[in-house]
Structure formats: structure tokens, C-alpha cells
């Protein structure tokens, strides 16, 4: 829901991120629509309409290059530390 964080996602992925209206209630509203379709047999095209587009956040190419480099670093570190994460989970036991 944070425009700031979604802009970071766009930079990191190097792809536009589309912000839709009603995203804060989207999952619950989607479940309600599915229930409505199951009960009424209405046309899905009429019930399941696309939400309004609030904004399209475009990545900045220079920033994407910076994020890409850091993401590659993260992947290398994560791969190297993955056995430690698993060991820590096993030591902690089930939740």
C-alpha cells in the first residue's frame, strides 16, 4: 500500500508497477465476489470487473542498475547463508 515501497519494487525489478484502487480490500472483496458467483450463477464478466488504475510507477534505469547490483549481492549472501537459516529453524523447533 505504500507508494514509496512500490517504487522501490519497480526499481528493483526494472518493470512498471501498477497501483490499483481498492487494494486494501481486494482479497476480501474477491472472496465475496466468488461466493456471489457460486450462489447466483451471474456472468463472471459482469461481477468481476477490473479495478481502477491509480498510478503506474515506472522504474528509473539508473536506479534499476544500482538495485540489480545489490540484489545480486543479496542472492549470493542468501545462498551462502541458507544452511545457517535452516539450522536456526531446526534449533527453534515448531511454532
Describe the structure in your own words.
The structure is a single chain. This protein is mainly alpha-helical and 95 residues long. Helices cover 65% and strands 9% of the residues. It has four helices and two strands; from the N terminus they run αβααβα. Strands 1-2 form a two-stranded antiparallel ribbon. The longest helix is centred in the last third of the chain and has 32 residues, at 61-92. The radius of gyration is 20 Å and the shape is flat. It starts with a helix and ends with a helix.
Task: Put the structure in a nutshell.
The protein is mainly alpha-helical and 95 residues long.
Class from helix and strand fractions: mainly alpha
Total DSSP helices: 4
Termini separation comes to 28 Å
Q: Low-confidence parts lasting 5 or more residues at pLDDT below 50? A: none
- Count all strands and give the number: 2
Reported for the largest beta sheet, the result is: 2 strands, antiparallel
Radius of gyration: 20 Å
Sum up the overall morphology in one term.
flat
Succession of helices and strands: HEHHEH
Mean pLDDT: 88
Q: How are the strands of the biggest sheet laid out side by side?
A: 1-2
Per DSSP, what share of the residues sits in E-state strands of 2 or more residues?
A: 5-15%
Percent in helix: 55-70%
Tags for this entry?
mainly alpha, 95 residues, two-stranded antiparallel sheet, 2 strands, 65% helix
Amino acid at each position: 500500500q505504500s507508494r514509496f515501497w512500490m517504487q522501490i519494487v519497480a526499481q528493483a525489478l526494472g518493470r512498471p508497477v501498477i497501483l490499483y484502487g481498492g487494494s486494501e480490500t481486494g482479497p476480501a472483496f474477491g472472496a465475496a465476489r466468488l461466493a456471489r458467483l457460486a450462489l447466483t450463477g451471474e456472468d463472471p464478466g459482469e461481477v468481476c470487473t477490473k479495478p481502477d488504475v491509480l498510478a503506474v510507477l515506472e522504474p528509473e534505469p539508473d536506479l534499476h542498475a544500482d538495485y540489480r547490483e545489490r540484489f545480486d549481492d543479496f542472492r549470493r549472501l542468501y545462498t551462502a547463508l541458507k544452511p545457517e537459516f535452516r539450522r536456526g529453524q531446526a534449533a527453534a523447533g515448531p511454532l
